[in-house]
Amino acid sequence: MTEKMNDRQGYIGTYEAVCLTSIMMVTKIFYTSIAVIVKIEGTSGWYGTLISCLTSLVMFSFIFLLLKRFPHMDITKIFEAVIGRFAGKILTLLFSAYMIFYAASSIREFIEMIKAYNLPYTPPSILIFGFIAVCAIVAYHGLEGIARVSAIFFVPVIIGVVLILILASPNYDFDYIKPYFGYGLKKTIVTGVLRSSAYDEVVILAFIINSVHGLKICKRAGYSSILISGLTFSTNILCNILAFQYTAGSENLSSLFELSRAIYFNRFVQRLESIFLFAWVVASLVTVSIAFYLAIDIYTKAFRIPGHRPLIFPFSFILFMVALIPENMPEVVQVNIQFIRQYSGFFIYLAPIAILLLAVLFRKRGELHNGKKS
Amino acid sequence: MAKKVSLLLVFCLGLLINLTGCYDAAEVDDEVYALVLGIDKGINNKVRVTIQYPTYKSSGGGGGESKSGGRMEAKNETQGSIIDTIEAPSILEALDMYGMSTSRRVSLMHMKNIIISEELAKEGVQAYVSPLARYREARGVVNISVARGTAQKFIQENKSNIGESLAKDLELMTVQSDNTSFFPRVTFYDFYNSLLSTYEQGYTAYAGLNELGNLPEDKYAGKAPLMVDNAFKPGEIPRSGVAKREYAGTAVFRDGKMVGSLNSEETRYFMMIVGKFTKGIIDMEDRESPGKVISLNFRPSRKPVVRAYFKKGRPIISIKLEMEADIGAVQSRVNYEDKDQVKKLSTRAEDYLERRAVQVIGKVQQQYNSDIFGFGQKLAGYFPTIQEWEKYDWLSHFKEAGINVKVNVSIRRTGLMLKSARITGYEK
After folding, report:
1. Is residue B7 situated within a structural domain?
2. Is B278 exposed, middle or buried (0-12, 13-18, 19+ CB in 10 A)?
3. How deeply is B95 buried, as exposed, middle or buried, from its count of CB atoms within 10 A (0-12, 13-18, 19+)?
4. Most buried one in A254, A264, B135, B207, CB count within 10 A?
5. pLDDT tens digit sequence for B214-250
């Protein structure tokens, strides 16, 4: 039993925890996020996302306070401890459902993009099947395996992105960030706060807290990954505005892909989007694997099921079905992705914060190291 | 154990089928790769689309063989490539319609050039350019030009006259822009961005066919006057040769429509102002020996500094060009290598470039009212928000702008000579 439990959770270090959460957040730059931000905020998008980053730091601080109040407990147990077993279970299952929705929407966004750019005639179901099969194999190896994969691929992914941004630099014109306040400071701040949802993947640390060697590492990993992601988002949005202006910059399906296609030095140094493809596919696979694994893991925690492996197949099936729900690309972008990146924070951040408030209100606390209740 | 291994193998084999991308697989030989896409106004339908693609024959395309080599060339076959034209409601459908006569699917994945006819460009290009921006096979780094006359005729004369590879020839032709600056290298990506831009207007290279009749060879004209101005439009360059197609000058756009052009000489000063001039030899008349030429090889020593501000509500643009030059030739053999003479020559070069740059800006501002220089980028900073900037509508205010140009020229080197010695008896 213990072996099985270890098998599914395992332990991960600070670096792996940072990579795990960062890669999940950073993957958005490969998709429609950049164009959507430029469309809403215009030329101020590059610092608008820093407002999202700051908001996320504040939100994560609240989540951290909750975790600190209940040491040695992951957030699913905290829910049950504060609002009771039934309501806690419901809330936990909502998170599991959200993770499935997140994974399915991410797969679908990936599939729609790969169909638009690379494989236009391949049926989406074939692509989704292949994608989920890989995620299922990764999830089979549990959190430790996923964390190792994230740690291995995070640096190459970031190097790939940086390489694209540097190689595309001849296309940049710094005057394109004018007017400096974009579509207005108010709009930038409001959107910035709302788009903090784009960083809410940091909440996964609250579910795997028992695997990250305690609160200190959780705190360090949370803050670091938010800052790394904020810097990555900001740089990418800035580079895209500098290259495409705020007008064409809001049109691109994948701004980063377009940037990689714009690289041209001479007859021999061009067509470098393969760098993008590598980074894009790896980052997407890891992201969906994490979300998929967490969906199963949260579910098993809700029902106290030992081991996650028997659930991989049924959850793969559910994932496949949910990924096929959106009828078309606009639906994926305007419904699923917009919810995840703009409004999911209301649930992901506010649910734990509400639990924290309730815990404070009803003076509920977890056990201390010596086993005494405070 | 054996069962597990077998299951894993079956699973992996299943994945092999799914993950090889076989649905979208295409053999290289299954497609024809259009290298040039020409767009003309249609007669029976909206648009006339011309493509030029390699023939896949021996010797890098087969067309490398001359007619005298005994092989017949079809009417629409030019060296190493075939040219097909079709009329269709849209460019993308035209590509499909080629499938009714061409045995392979037409792909734009390796397209190098887009040629738009002048007539179409003057009517507006948005309807034809936008679909290409959406189409995955059309790459943003493709070069775009406007052709005098029809794109179809231009492409029919688009021959690789050096080497066998048309693709290489097309790419190197546009690189000539960096060597001479007589025409700009504009990518589809640049042009499309400028169509949507609120900071600037678009421009493309200007191309055309030269019937090779501008070079009088049958009579001796006596002492020819000195004309240092290489102000040519495509089709007008006095030359003979093999290739009829030529690039000379810039097609100027306003609101997506071509409104005029700059000739090859004006294009050089335009390129200096926008910071795209890389190098070029410019001849000036020698004041100390009228009728003779001093050739200076110019290059920018730093990027142009453009400052913009409002003075009593009027936009003022101030441009500073920093250029370096080497003396390429002194016909008069006046000792311009002397440091005082170098200084004088620098001052004259500054005046010359300044005057020309002002003329070009004046022409674009007054005749075309199109900010192809991108001065708007500098003024946008005076507006806090995009709404205010768009409300101001810089592109409609461009004409009112006061523009000052200052040029600094530093002559650095004098070629391989330290001093021009007098040639004995030359003055006689």
Report:
1. no
2. middle
3. buried
4. B207
5. 887 766 656 777 777 878 999 998 888 888 899 999 9
| DSSP secondary structure letters along A211-222 | GTTSHHHHHHHH
The set of residues, in sequence order, having a beta carbon less than 8 Å from that of B94 and lying 6+ positions away, is B47, B49, B86, B87, B88
The tally of domains found in chain B comes to 2
Structural domain that includes position B246: 29-61+73-213+227-274
Contact (CB<8Å) A130/B19: yes
Query: Can you identify the CATH homologous superfamily of domain A8-361?
Result: Amino acid/polyamine transporter I (1.20.1740.10)
Question: What residues of A are in contact with residue B193 (Cβ under 8 Å)?
Answer: 244-245, 247-248
Q: Check: CB of residue B294 under 8 Å from CB of residue B330.
A: yes
- For CA atoms B157, B161, B167, B172, the dihedral sign is negative
Interface predicted TM-score (ipTM) of this complex, two decimals = 0.89
How close does chain A come to B378, measured CA to CA in Å?
6
Structural domain includes residue B14: no
Q: How far apart are CA A280 and CA A258, in angstroms?
A: 13
> Which amino acid does the sequence have at B343?
K
Q: Which residue of B has its CA nearest to A133?
A: B15
Which residues are CB-contacts of B282 (< 8 A; sequence separation ≥ 6)?
B268, B295, B296, B298, B352, B353
* Average pLDDT value for residue range A42-70: 95
Shared domain for B376 and B255, answered yes or no, is no
DSSP per residue over A28-55, as a string?
GGGTTHHHHHHHHHGGGHHHHHHHHHHH
Q: Domain boundaries in chain A?
A: 8-361
Same-domain status, B85 and B197: yes
Please name the residue of chain A whose CA is at the shortest distance from the CA of residue B275.
A173
Q: Which residue has the tokens 């299922």?
A: A136
In this structure, the answer to whether residues B301 and B268 fall within a common structural domain is no
Residue A366 has a pLDDT of 78
Q: What is the 3-state secondary structure (H, E, C) of A134-148?
A: HHHHHHHCHHHHHHH
Whether B23 and chain A come into contact, CB under 8 Å, resolves to: yes
Does B321 reside within a domain?
yes
B80: left (phi over 0), alpha (psi -120 to 50) or beta: left
> Is B340 within 8 Å of chain A by CB?
no
Strand, coil or helix: what is A75?
Answer: helix
Answer yes or no: do B256 and B325 share one domain: no
Cα–Cα distance for residue pair A317/B125, rounded to 1 Å: 48
Q: What is the pTM of this model?
A: 0.90
pLDDT tens-place string over residues B267-279: 999 999 999 999 9
B364 shares its domain with B253: no
Residue B380, chain A, CB below 8 Å: the answer is yes
Which helix (H) or strand (E) segment holds residue B145: the answer is strand B143-147
Measured CA to CA, the distance from residue B288 to residue B280 in angstroms comes to 23
Cβ separation A179–B383 shorter than 8 A: yes
Q: Return the pLDDT at B11.
A: 79
Q: What is the pLDDT of residue A369?
A: 53
Q: How many helices (H) and strands (E) does chain A have?
A: 18, 0
Nearest CA among B410, B424, B425 for reference residue B296: B410
pLDDT per residue over A271-325, tens digit each? 888 888 888 999 999 999 999 999 999 999 999 998 899 999 999 999 999 999 9
> Which residue of B309, B386, B390 to mutate against A (max A Cβ within 10 Å)?
B386
Please name the residues between 180 and 219 in chain B that touch chain A, using a CB distance below 8 Å: 187, 189, 192-193, 196-199
Does the beta-carbon distance from A245 to B387 stay under 8 Å?
no
Chain B neighbors of A181, CB-CB under 8 A: 384-385
**B181 min Cα distance to partner chain A (Å):** 17
Q: Which residues on B lie below 8 Å from A270 (Cβ)?
A: 141
Please report whether residue B17 resides in a domain. no
Chain B CB contacts of A124 under 8 Å are: none
Locate the chain B residue with the closest alpha carbon to A253: B134
